[in-house]
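Researcher: Can you fold this with zinc ion in place?
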Amino acid sequence: MIKINKTGKRPDILVSRGADKDKDKLLLETEKLKTEYLSDSSNYNSGKKKFEFDSDLYAHDKIKAALIKIQHGKCCFCESRITHVAYGDVEHFRPKKVWTTLSNRKYNYPGYYWLAYDWNNLFLACQLCNQRFKRNLFPLVDESKRALNPTYDINDEEPLFIHPEKIDPELHITFDGAFITPKNGSLKGEVTIKSLDLERIELYENRNEIYALIDSLIKLYRLVPDTVPENVIKKSEVREKLKRMIAPQYQYLNMIKSNFGDDIQKIINESV
Ligand SMILES: [Zn+2]
């Protein structure tokens, strides 16, 4: 997991027809949901009545394209590159329909419905992280601070999941080789790793392949004397390759930086 910055990159989605055509569709739909809730709040609170959300809107082509660009096609949680093999999900950090906690998986309605179309609540995630592991789970440090409807301030909440934009995941999650682990005993790191199963074997295997490749490249770079003829091996090419591997678009960047950040930076500095 690495920090994501979406500030100032929200796409405009205007209503295409009718009297409202120049109005922001995301805000308009959010206002409708709020009005619906006020008209029948007890039934929405009990779950008897449920909101209908428009996936064509929160996962609108423009929103998806913007998230893919900002996140370099990588999952906001596991950092796997999604777009080469799948469409990817538009994930709601705060669940829109219903929420559950770690200790009690019972459904709590109505969810964070007023954030269903909120750009700040949307990220690109892989299907496994989103649909299999995170689902409706949204634990907090202090349940009494839970925002139960739009009159509460979500900034009073302290989520146990690492928010990919507000918190730097590198302060809470680190790696020993390809093994993922909470940094300095971070509870948020631990809950995020365990709940999303960021230890899963498939991720470990992917990370381990990259770990082994970088480890070999660094060893190769150090072994090659500066005097070696360029037709044998170009030291500068190995350096460039390593430089590309700590660029934001590279998969498992937190793992790479945790293990090799200093070594690669030192090698890059040798070129200047
Ligand atoms: Zn993922």
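Model: Folded with zinc ion in place. The beta strands are 89-92, 122-125, 173-176, 179-182.
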